[in-house]
Amino acid sequence: MLVNTPEQLKNTPLHEKHIALGAKMVPFSGWNMPVQYTGIIDEHLHTREKAGLFDICHMGEFMLKGPAVEKDLNKLLSRRVDDLTPGKCRYSFMLNEGGGIIDDLIVYRTSGEEFMLVVNAGTISKDREWVKKNISSGTKFLDESDRTAKLDLQGPSSGDIMAGLLGDKTVNGLKRFNFTHIKVNDTTTMLSRTGYTGELGYELFMPVSAAEEVWDTLMGFEDVRPIGLGARDTLRLEAGYSLYGSDIDEEHTPLEANLERFVSFDKDFTGKDALLEQKEEGPGRLLTGFICEGRRSARSHFKVLREGKEIGEVTSGAFSPCLKKGIGLCYLNKEFSVEGKEIILTDGKVEIEAKVKSLPIYEHS
């Protein structure tokens, strides 16, 4: 089972593995997590070139089952689930009545009357209460977070690695946002063709008791190296993926976050009326990317200026190992969220020249 450190941070079942590998550990969403092993840039580039293995056991997993579960989730989530067939999953939002994002998640249809929600670590408690409050009395809810381990294998070599592990090349044909069940050694593992890096990749779900064995098995492949949260952040930024709590939250809607494509307006769901009203008026600010002129990047809460006037705020920023420049995400007044527009990022002391960049920020050649 997952255990606590003296500081009341939770450890994943792979904690001792990280210590043995020399990882630098940091607090993250209530967890003691590896931020880096050999260095963020080194780990980032290895994932882009070969394959990186991530400990993502801190994420939450909810199981929902019953004859009304499809109807419940159609109301609870921003995207349809009634057209999901078993073996398929999709990215979606849980919204409050004002259209603000309670959480972003992936919903998996595991059978006709059963679904799994994979939610962010820092929102597990509030998500649990919101889901339980908004489902039918006949829908069974189980929080499996403490019993489920999750590992991510990401990078261009990941398909061949999984094929080698299974002795079956058909895994290379698993389409994005599809999943299946496999055996890793003797452990039944759910294998999902999803990820948070912009690379070919897989997410693996298994019982906590099997995490170390599966980790060791994957680490046995020549192209695989462990990757910390630092590189996970720079990888997702290059891909233009939002991070909950930094770029999206209950104060922002999917429309403001430039994520309207993940909203099904052809059904009823919590927050729809607020989104329709905002859609008619048009959001005042939009989330977009930026690329700095040099290696230095802005950080969260830097102001964005245009001709001396404040037009937005930075939500995430970092050095891009692939572009070798500072990059990030920011909310900009809608009229300025145009590709190539010159902007200044500042904390009142430092000024950084940058240009607006549509997402993704980094695109493979």
Please compute the radius of gyration using only Cα atoms. Answer: 21 Å
Which whole number gives the mean pLDDT?
96
Largest sheet geometry: 6 strands, mixed
Work out the strand percent. Answer: 35-45%
Q: What is the terminal separation in angstroms?
A: 43 Å
Number of strands: 21
Spans where pLDDT lies below 50 across 5 or more residues: 1-6
Q: How many H/I helical runs?
A: 8
- Assign the structural class, choosing from mainly alpha, mainly beta, alpha/beta, alpha+beta, or little secondary structure: alpha+beta
The string of secondary-structure elements, in order, is EEHEEHEEHEEEHEEHEEEHEHHEEEEEE
Helicity range = 10-25%
Provide structural commentary:
- The chain is of the alpha+beta class and 365 residues long.
- The chain has helices at residues 15-20, 40-49, 69-76, 124-133, 158-166, 211-219, 229-239, 272-281; strands spanning 3-4, 10-11, 24-28, 31-36, 51-55, 60-65, 89-95, 101-111, 114-119, 140-143, 148-154, 179-184, 187-192, 201-207, 224-226, 285-292, 303-306, 309-320, 325-333, 342-346, 351-357.
- The strands form 4 sheets. Strands 12-13-14-11-5-15 form a 6-stranded mixed sheet, with helices on both faces.
- Strand 1 and strand 2 form a beta hairpin.
- Helix 2 crosses helix 7 (229-239).
- The longest helix has 11 residues, at 229-239.
- The termini are far apart.
- The model is unreliable at 1-6 (pLDDT under 50).
